[in-house]
Amino acid sequence: MNKRKVVIGFLGSQLDGGLGAGRWDKWRPSVALMQHDDVLIDRFELLHDLRHKTLAAQVREDMICASPSTDVRLHQHTLHNPWDFGEVYASLYDWVRAYPFNTEAEDYWIHITTGTHVIQICLFLLVEARFAPGVLLQTSPPRQQRAGNAGHFELIDLDLSRYDALASRLAAAQQDAQSFLKSGIATLNPQFNALIAEIERVAVRSKAPILLTGPTGAGKSMLARRMYELKKARHQISGAFVDVNCATLHGDGAASALFGHQRGAFTGAASARAGLLRTADQGVLFLDEIGELGPDEQAMLLKAIEDKRFLPVGADHEVSSDFQLIAGTHRDLRVDVASGRFREDLFARINLWSYQLPGLAQRREDIAPNIDHQLILAAQELGRQVRFSTEARAAYLDFAQSPQALWRGNFRDLAASVTRLATLAEQGRISLPLVQAEIERLRWLWQPSPDAPTPTSPPDDDANALLTQWLGPRWDALDQFEQLQLSAVVRVCREARSLSDAGRQLFNISRQQRSVVNDADRLRKYLGRYGLDWDTTQSLSEPEHLMVSNAIYTQGKN
Hints:
The chain is an alpha/beta fold. It has 4 domains: 4-158, Hypothetical protein VC1899 like domain (Restriction endonuclease-like) (Rossmann fold); 208-356, Rossmann fold; 360-446, Helicase, Ruva Protein, domain 3; 462-557, no CATH class. It is 45% helix and 13% strand. The two termini are 55 Å apart.
C-alpha cells in the first residue's frame, strides 16, 4: 500500500514572501515543494505566526495553484518572540502532541528550511525525540531562479540504526567511555563490565542522583570522579567536582560545611561560608558515606536535591545550587531505613540509580590487570619503570587470586602492596624473594591482633530480650553500637517514673547547655526512630503494631 505523503512545515516570512506577480519568478520553499513532477504531496500542514496571517493565506493559494490535488491546511500559532527557544518549543510540542498521526497510512516529512533558526531546531528536536514520527525535509533553491524551477530536496532520517558506519563509530565511542570509567583497565569480570556499561549510559544521559554502594576501598570515589570527568568532557556540566566524606562531618559543623552559614550564625562564625553544596553548583557533589549524615542534614539535603534550594545556617533567605548528586556508602541503607537511622524519603530520592560495587575478592579474575595498572601508577610516582620477574609475577598472582588473600581493604590494599614492591625493587625488577616477603606481610596484616579484645555480644538482660522480641529482624540488622545504646536507653525507661524523668537522666549533661529544655520530646524522638514509644518500654508484651511492622519487614527481606 502506498502511503499518503504529508509535509509539516512553518511558513518562512522571508523565503516564502512575495505578493506581486513577480513572486512566481522567486524560489519559495513551501510553494516549490508543490512543483516537483516526481513527487506528489497529499497534504501540507502549514504552520504560521499570527502576524503573517495574510502571507500564509496567499502562500496557501499559490500552493494549491501549483498542485490542486494537495490539501493545504493552515495552523495559526501565537508567538510573542519566534527566537525564544522555550516559547517556540512549547508551542510546537503542544501542537505535535495533539496532532492525529497515523503512521500506518501516512508518511510524514518535517520541513526545516523555513522559519527562524530556533523554529528549525525545535522541529529537529521533536523529530529526534520521535514526538513527530517522520523524517526531516531539507530544500534548496536552483542555481538560477526562474519560474517553475522547483530546486532540490533531500530527506534525512534520524533513525541512527539505519546508518551502519555511524552506529559503529557511536559504539566505539561508548566503549571508549566505558574504558575511561575503568581507568583503562581491561577487566574480565562479566558482572562488573555489565555494571560499568550501564553506569556509562546513565552518566551521560541522566542528571538524577546515583547511589554507589560497596565495601571500603571498592573504588566508589574513583568511579564518581571518572563519571564527573566523562560528563565534563561531553560539556554536560561546567562546575567543580566536590568530594565529601560525610563520616568526617560532626555536630553543628556538619550543616555549616554542607549548606554554608551567615556571618554571626553561631559563636565563631566571623565570616560567611558558601558551603559545599554551593561550591558544587553546575557540577557534581559526591557524598561518600552518606549514611553517616545526621537526621537534620538528611532533611536539608532532601530539599536541596528536590528544589535545588536550601537555607544556609542562620540565613533568612534560601540560596540555590544546581548540582548532580553521587552518593556512596558501605552500609545497607535499606537496613538503616528499617531501623529509622536513614530517612525513607531521602533513600527513595537517591535510589533511582543504585549500583553495588563488588570488592576485589569478588573480582579475582580482574586482579592481574589491576596489578599492571598499579605498576604504571607506581612507576609514575617513582619516576622509573618497574617490572616483575616471570617467577615473581606468577607467585604473586597465585597468592593474590587464592582464597588466602582476603583483600579486606580491597583496591587500597592492592595499591599499597604493589607500591611497596615497586619501591623496594632493585634495578626496577621485582624479584621472587621480594614477593615472598610481601606475601608474608599481607598475611600478617590480615590476621587479627592477639591483643585485640574479643567481640562481646550485647548484654543478655530483660531490655535486650524485649528489644529482640519487639524489633524482630530489625534488631539483628543493627550495629552492636546501636544495640548497646538502645538497650541501655530502654533499661533507664523501664526503671524511670515517667518519660520526663527518663529524659532528665539520659540527657543530664546536654540539657544544662540548652535554653529550652524538653527532655521528654528528645527521648520520644529517639525511641520513634526504632518504632518504639514510652508505653512499649513499660510493657512485657509485644505491641500489635510492632508485630505487623515486623511481619512486613520480614516479607520485604524475603
